[in-house]
Amino acid sequence: VDAEKRVAAEAAAALVEDGMTVGLGTGSTVEHLLAALSARKLRIRCVATSMQTERAALGLGLRVEPFEALERLDLAIDGADQIAPDRWLVKGGGGAHTREKIVAAAADRFVVIASSDKLVDELRPPIPLELLRFGLAATLRALGHAGLRDEQSPDGNLIADYHGAIGDPASLAAWLSSTPGVVEHGLFPPVLVDEILVGSGPGVERR
Ligand code: A5P
After folding, report:
1. Is the C-alpha dihedral spanning 159, 173, 186, 164 positive or negative?
2. What is the pTM of this model?
3. Which protein residue's CA is at the shortest distance from atom 8 of ligand 1?
C-alpha cells in the first residue's frame, strides 16, 4: 500500500511546474508528495491544508504561504479515504477536509493521489464532519447518527463522523451542508475532481 501511495505521489509531483502555486493536502500519501516535490527543487509557492503538512513541507525546504491573500491556485494535490467509480470522494480521515475542500475548489486542477485500496464500489460511512463548538449538542441531535472524535480541525473546530446511511451522495451532501453547525463535510463531488492517480502494483493508473 505504501509503495502504491509513493508511485501515485511521484506521478503527481511530475505535474508540477516551475512558478506554480500548489495546494498541498494532508495524510500519508501527501507525505510522499512532499518528498518528491522537494527533490525536484522547483520555485513554487505552496499552501498547506494542515499543520502537519505545513511542518513537513517547511522541513523539506518547500515555500509555504498563508492562504489568505492568494485568490487561486494552479494545482492542488491530495489523498482520499474512499474513491467511488463516479468520482465522488470521501475525505477527512485526518480531520482536515474543510481546508482540503477550500484548497481543491480554489485550484484550476485538483489531482487525487491514492493507493488502490481506496477504490470502492460505493461510498460507505463514516463521513467526516467539522462542527462548530457553539450549539454542539443541538447540532449532534439534528444529525442523529454522528459521533465526536477526540480531535480538532486545523482551525480549532470539532471533528465528528456521520454514521447514517449514505444513499445518494449529492442528497446527503446537500443535507449536511444545510445543517446549521456543520462547518463542512467530507463528501467531495465529482465536479471538483480533475484527475485521479491510483498506484496499481508498480505503476500508476490515471482516471
Ligand atoms: C485528510 O483529512 C484526509 O482527507 C486524507 O486526504 C485522507 O485521509 C488520505 O489519507 P492517507 O493519504 O494517509 O491515506
Report:
1. positive
2. 0.96
3. 93
Dihedral of alpha carbons 177, 183, 186, 192, sign: positive
Q: Is 100 in the pocket of ligand 1 (CB under 6 A)?
A: yes
> Hey, how many other C-beta atoms are within 10 angstroms of the C-beta on 194?
16
27 lines ligand 1 (CB under 6 A): yes
Q: Residues 29-63: pLDDT tens digits?
A: 999 999 999 999 999 999 999 999 999 999 999 99
100 is catalytic: yes
CA 154 from chain center: how many Å? 13
Express each pLDDT in 62-106 by its tens digit. Answer: 999 999 989 999 999 999 999 999 999 999 999 999 999 999 999
For ligand 1, the distance from its centroid to the CA atom of residue 199, given in whole angstroms, is: 15
